[in-house]
Write a structure and sequence with these properties.
Distance between the termini of chain A: 38 Å
Mean pLDDT of chain A: 97
Shape of chain A: globular
CATH superfamily of the largest domain in chain A: 2,3-Dihydroxybiphenyl 1,2-Dioxygenase, domain 1
CATH class of the largest domain in chain A: Alpha Beta
Low-confidence stretches of chain A: none
Largest interface: A-B, 55 and 55 residues
Radius of gyration of chain A: 18 Å
Strand content of chain A: 25-35%
Order of helices and strands of chain A: EHEEEEHEEEEHEEEEHEEEEHH
Oligomer: homotetramer
CATH topology of the largest domain in chain A: 2,3-Dihydroxybiphenyl 1,2-Dioxygenase, domain 1
Strand order of the largest sheet of chain A: 14-15-16-13-9-12-11-10-17
Chain lengths: 309, 309, 309, 309
Amino acid sequence: MAMTGVLRPGHISLRVLDLEEGINFYKNTLGLVETGRDGQGRVYFKAWDEREHNSVLIREAESAGVDFFAFKVADKATLDKLDADLQAFGLKTERIPAGEMLETGERVRFEVPSGHLIELYAEKTDIGNGQSYVNPDPWIPDAEHGIAPTRMDHCLLYGPDIEKVQEIFEKVLGFYLVEHVVMEDGKTDLAIWLSCSTKAHDIAFVRHPEPGKLHHISFKLDSWEKVLRAADIMSMNRISIDIGPTRHGITRGTTIYAFDPSGNRFETFCGGYDTYPDYKAVTWTWDEVGAGIFYHDRKLNERFLSVVS
Amino acid sequence: MAMTGVLRPGHISLRVLDLEEGINFYKNTLGLVETGRDGQGRVYFKAWDEREHNSVLIREAESAGVDFFAFKVADKATLDKLDADLQAFGLKTERIPAGEMLETGERVRFEVPSGHLIELYAEKTDIGNGQSYVNPDPWIPDAEHGIAPTRMDHCLLYGPDIEKVQEIFEKVLGFYLVEHVVMEDGKTDLAIWLSCSTKAHDIAFVRHPEPGKLHHISFKLDSWEKVLRAADIMSMNRISIDIGPTRHGITRGTTIYAFDPSGNRFETFCGGYDTYPDYKAVTWTWDEVGAGIFYHDRKLNERFLSVVS
Amino acid sequence: MAMTGVLRPGHISLRVLDLEEGINFYKNTLGLVETGRDGQGRVYFKAWDEREHNSVLIREAESAGVDFFAFKVADKATLDKLDADLQAFGLKTERIPAGEMLETGERVRFEVPSGHLIELYAEKTDIGNGQSYVNPDPWIPDAEHGIAPTRMDHCLLYGPDIEKVQEIFEKVLGFYLVEHVVMEDGKTDLAIWLSCSTKAHDIAFVRHPEPGKLHHISFKLDSWEKVLRAADIMSMNRISIDIGPTRHGITRGTTIYAFDPSGNRFETFCGGYDTYPDYKAVTWTWDEVGAGIFYHDRKLNERFLSVVS
Amino acid sequence: MAMTGVLRPGHISLRVLDLEEGINFYKNTLGLVETGRDGQGRVYFKAWDEREHNSVLIREAESAGVDFFAFKVADKATLDKLDADLQAFGLKTERIPAGEMLETGERVRFEVPSGHLIELYAEKTDIGNGQSYVNPDPWIPDAEHGIAPTRMDHCLLYGPDIEKVQEIFEKVLGFYLVEHVVMEDGKTDLAIWLSCSTKAHDIAFVRHPEPGKLHHISFKLDSWEKVLRAADIMSMNRISIDIGPTRHGITRGTTIYAFDPSGNRFETFCGGYDTYPDYKAVTWTWDEVGAGIFYHDRKLNERFLSVVS
C-alpha cells in the first residue's frame, strides 16, 4: 500500500570508449563514488547520497550507449509477480542470477519494443550514504567532490513503438503518464514522461526510428545554485555542454545537458514538481515543443532530436 | 502498483479565533488562494500549485487547533478497502457524505489513539493550478502573492500512544517510518516521521500527554531563497517567528516555524531527501535531539515541546 | 577621499521603435518604475531600489540605439573640475541646462572617440526607493513586479579607437581597467572593462568599426535565482533571449542577454567580484575569449560580435 | 579620482587563547588560506579570493579580542598625506616599519577614541587568488574548503565616544555614514555603519562603556545558499552559533553570527546594498532597533549588546 511494486530507478550500465577516461570523468568530474570493479571489467559507482551499492556501471566498448536500465522493486515477491505479469503480457523475460553484478540480487531482464533492455531487481546491498543511520549530518565532504549529484534519477531513451512501451510501463509496471508531447498530427506522441513515484519522471521515451538509443542519463542536484556550480565544473574540466543552465517547460526542472568523454549525454538537473497517479497528464503541442523542452529559448537545438548514443 | 493506496495529505481543518483575521493571514500573508466558503462558515483555500479545490479550511472557534487532517487515496475502491481494513483493525470509522465539504467526495473519518481525527477521501474536484494542462508556464503571478507555498505538505501532531498510531499508519494505511527520535531510555520513541510516498514525511507525531494537539501544519517552498523571502514577508507582516530560517537535522529540510494570528504554528520549509519504503529508518538519540530538530543551534528552544494548539 | 569624482552610472537614453510597446516592456516585463514623461516625448524610469528620479529614458525613433550615457559625480565642484579637465585633455564639452531632463541638474556632455555621447551631472532629485529612510524593510512589492532589477548597472558600447576612450576614462575621469580581451596579435585590446568604484564594471567598450553603437545596457539582480526568474519572465513574455542563463568568465557575473522589442540588447546579471584600483587587471587571450564571454559554452555565439543597436 | 584615499579593510590581528586550536578553526572550519607565520608567533591567513598576502592574523594571548584593524590606502603618497591629516586633526600616529608584518609595507597606526588601534598601509604583496591573471576560472577548490569566505569584509567595534570616531573617519579618512541607530533620546547614536566604498559597511561602531572591544569580524559569502552551507559547517564542527541564518534590517545583509573557539564573534554574511557618499543615511529608531539588527526576529538577543571580546 502507498509505495508498492516498482520503487525507483536502480542502475544503468553505460558503454564508454576509454575506461580510464570514463572512470576519471564519473569519479572526479561528475563526482560519483566508485564502489567496485568486477571480473567483466565493469566499474561501479553510486551518487554520494544513494544508499545502495551501485547505480552507474561503465564498461569499455567500441561504441557509447546504454546496455540496460534497471528498477528496484519492493521485494522478492514483487519481483516474481512482475516477472509473471510481464510474461503474461507477452514479453520474454530472463533471470540473471544474484551476484552477476556486485552486491546485487537476482535480476529480471526484458526488452521493450523501443529496443531497450530493462531490468527489475529486489535486492542490493545497502552501504549507506557515508553517514551513520544514527544522528547523521545533512551532507558530507563527498557532497562537494566534483558535481556530486545526490542520485541517479531517470533516463530518456530513444526508440520506436513508444505506445507499446507506455502500455507495458503503465499496465504491467504500474507507472503513470506525467507529461507528453504530441506530434504535428495532434494525436501521435513524440515523447512520454512516466513516473512510478511522486517524481515528475522516472523514465522517459522519445519516438525514434533507431532502437535502443540513449538520449541522456540524468542526475539530481539539490538547487539551482548547484546547477550553476555543475556548469562551472563542466567548463573547468572542458566537458562539452549541449545546453544549459536552463529550464525545461516539461517537468519545470532546471537543467544542463552535457556529454561524457565518450559522447553519452547526461543531465544534471534540479526540481520538477511533485506528481501523483491521479493527476491529469500535461500535454505539449507540436508548435510549443521548443518551450516544452527548453523553456527559455523556446526552440529545440539541432542536437536534441538527432544526437543519441 | 508503484503508487497505490494512500497518496498524499489532502486537507486540514484549522480553528482560528477571528475569521477575518484568519482569512487575511492565509490569503495575503501565507498566500494561499481562497476557493470558497460554505454554509458552516468555513473558508477554503489551496496552495497555488495544488490542483484540487482545497487543502486548508479555517473556521472560527473559541480555541485554535486542528479539527481533522485528511489523505487522498487512489480511488473509490481503495477508500472502501481501507475503511474495511481500519474496522478490521478495530477502529471505528464514520462516513461523511460527499458534499459536506465543498467539491469533496465522501470521506472516511476515524480517530487515532493520539486523539486526532484522520480522514480519507477519493474524490475532490480538480480546479487546476491556474494554468492550462496544455503548454503550461512553470509558474504564475499567484506564485508570488504572499509567501505562496506550492502545497500543503504535512503536519506534526502531538498526543499520546504514538506506538499504536504508528501501527495503524504502517499496517493499515501503508506508511513507513522514515526517522524517529528515541527518548532517554534508548527505546521509547519521542517522535516519529511517517511517509506514504517518496517525501521525507507525510505526517509526524510527537508523544505528548494531552491528546489531539497540533504542533504545526507545514507548507512547501521551492528553494532556500524562498525560505528567506518567507521570513522577510513574516517580518513585514509582524508574524511571530518561532525559529528560523534554519535547517532540520531530521529530514534535512530548511525551515521556518511561525504562528498564525490565532496561535496555530505553521512551517514553511524546503527540501528533505527522497526516501523509499525499503530504506532503513534514521534514528536520533536523546542527547542529539537538539541537532535533529534544529541542526544549526543544536538545541531545542523551550517552545518546541510545550507550545501546541 | 575614498569615493570621489565620478560615482556611478546615472542614466541612459535609449531609442525605441514604438513608444507604447517600449513603455510596456520597460515597465511590466523588465519591471522598472515609471517616474515621468517630458515634453520631448521621453518616458523616464528608475529601478525600484534606485533613489534618484530616473536612470533609463526611452524615446521613439526610426532606429534603436543609445542617445547618451551619463555618470553621477560627487558634487557641483567636481562637475566643474571634470568639465575643465575634459577640455584640457582636448575634448569639446557642452553644458545642458538643469531641467532639460526631468528632476535632473546641469549636465556636461562630450563625445568620446568611439562615437558615444557621455554625460556627467551632479544633481538629480532623490525620490527614494519606495521606502522611508527610517526603519525601512529590505524590499517592497515593486521588487517583484516584472524582472525588477535593483539598478541600472553599466553598459557595453561598441565603437572605434577604444585606446583613446580608455585614456579619457582613466586619466580624466579616474576609472581603472578591471579586465580586458587581447586580440590575435597579443597586444591590441578587443575589449575593455572599466570601473570607477568597487564594481567589476561601470562601463565597457568593444572595438568595432561603426561608431556609437550599443551592445547592451545592463541591470543588476540580487541572486542567481533572480536570474532564473528573469529568464522565466522573459519566456512568459516572449522576449527574445540572446544567451543565458550562463556565467561570464570576465567579471564572473551570472547573466542573461536578451533584446527589448526594438532590438536593443539588455542584460540582467548578478554577481561579479569586488575590485579596487590597486588590483592588477585580468587579461583574456584571443584563444580563450569564448570562455571569457560565455564561461559555460566556452565559445562566442555569432550574435555577440555582430548584432548591436 | 573615483576610488581614492582609503580603499578597503586590509587586515585584522586577533588574539586567540590556544594557537593550534585557532589555526585549525581559521584554516579548516572558516576555511581561510594560511600564508605564513612570523617570529612573533603570529599566523597569517587570507580569504581564498583576496589577492594580498594576508587579511587575518592570529596570535596566542591570555584573552581574546582585537589588537588592531587596518585599511589599505591608494598609494604611498596617500599614506603620508593621511598620516599628516591625522596629526593635524590632533591624533598621535605611529609608523611601524615595513616588514614588521610579513609581506606588508610601512603602517601608520593611531588610536581612535573608542579605544581601538587603527592602521593604514599602502603596500602588501599581491600573491593572487590562486588563479592566473590570464584567463582565470571563476573559482578554485579552495573556494569549497571549509566555509571559505571570499574576503575579510569589515568589523564592528564596541567602545566609547563614537561621535569623535565618526568625525575622524568622515573628515580625515573620507568615510561616510550609511546607517545609524538612534538611542531612546532620539538624538544620540547607539551605532554607526561607515563606508569608504560602495559597500554598505567597511567598519561599524557601537557605543559601549568599555574601550577597545570587538563585537565581530565579518567575512563575505557569495550567496544565501553559502550562508546555509556556512551554518551547516559550523554545526558539523560544533561551532557555537550566536544567531542565524537570518537577515539584518540594517544593510539588508543575510548573516550568521558565531564564535571562534576563543570567544571572538565572527560573522559570515552575504549581500547588503550598493551605496554611495551622496546617499542619505538610513536611520533606525530605538523602538525598531530589534528589526534593524535581526530583521526576522525583530528583537535583539541578550548577547548582542553584552558579549564582546
